[in-house]
Design brief:
Length: 254
């Protein structure tokens, strides 16, 4: 008798009662700490595993603990804010004060320059004339006059004195030596000046040179600064000087 063995099972047919092949082992989870994501196993309702769930990784440089502060507390102490505000206010006040002071000083300097220029122009007109230019020169002098000096100049520089100067062939040349603004107060100013004057007439053979020292009073009018007073401190030394009488007369207005 021969022993018969059952035929091998067909791979495509399940054999009842045959031993069940072992299930493949689950893959090991990826190590933590790597770039990308971490894996966690998620269970289903039946208890079976549904595979790893991917969780985004946070870079280590972003995992910095955030700085927390108590509610209602500012980052800058209140006394620092107050001090900075006070310093800013003080700086603003100083800037405004400096600007006003600079503006006043600049205006004062500009006014002094104007007063000095007007005084110098007047003295040059007063001490420079010839027999043929007397009429025009006196009109120029009258244009600088105001107040009491305007009244006095109109009386003194009349037609009679002009005729006398022309008859005496009087001539004068003046150069400014020194002009100084002594005071400046609002619309009033005073100027001290020295003028080198050379004069001659038909009664002297050699021209005479002298220094005329004078103090001028000026007034700021609607048409600009004008001469309101003329005081001669040292008139020409020669009695024959063509401007000697003129200096004394204009000086009476001081």
């Amino acid at each position: 008798m021969t022993e018969q063995h059952p035929p091998p099972p067909d791979p495509g047919v399940a054999v009842v009662g045959a031993p069940r092949p072992p299930a493949p082992a689950a893959p090991d989870p990826p190590p933590t700490g790597t770039s990308g994501s971490t894996g966690t196993t998620e269970e289903t309702a039946g208890g079976s595993t549904a595979g790893p769930r991917r969780t985004p990784m946070v870079p280590s440089r972003m995992r910095t603990r955030a700085r927390t502060m108590a509610p209602g507390v500012s980052g800058t102490p209140p006394w620092v804010v107050i001090a900075l505000g006070a310093m800013a206010l003080a700086a603003t006040c100083l800037a405004i004060g400096f600007g006003v002071a600079w503006s006043d000083a600049n205006s004062q300097t500009s006014t002094q320059a104007t007063v000095k220029r007007v005084a110098g122009d007047f003295l040059l007109a007063l001490t420079n004339f010839t027999p043929t230019s007397v009429d025009a020169d006196f009109r120029t002098i009258a244009g600088y006059a105001t107040g009491d000096f305007a009244k006095q100049s109109n009386q003194f520089f009349g037609s009679s004195i002009r005729q006398q100067l022309q008859a005496a062939q009087a001539r004068s040349e003046g150069q400014l030596r020194y002009v100084y603004v002594q005071t400046l107060d609002g619309s009033q100013a005073s100027v001290y000046a020295e003028v080198d004057q050379t004069y001659a007439n038909n009664k002297v053979t050699t021209p005479i040179t002298d220094v005329l020292q004078v103090v001028l009073g000026l007034t700021d009018t609607a048409t600009g600064w004008k001469i309101s007073a003329v005081t001669v401190l040292q008139p020409p030394a020669s009695a024959n000087a063509p401007t000697g009488n003129a200096s004394s007369a204009t000086g009476s207005g001081g």
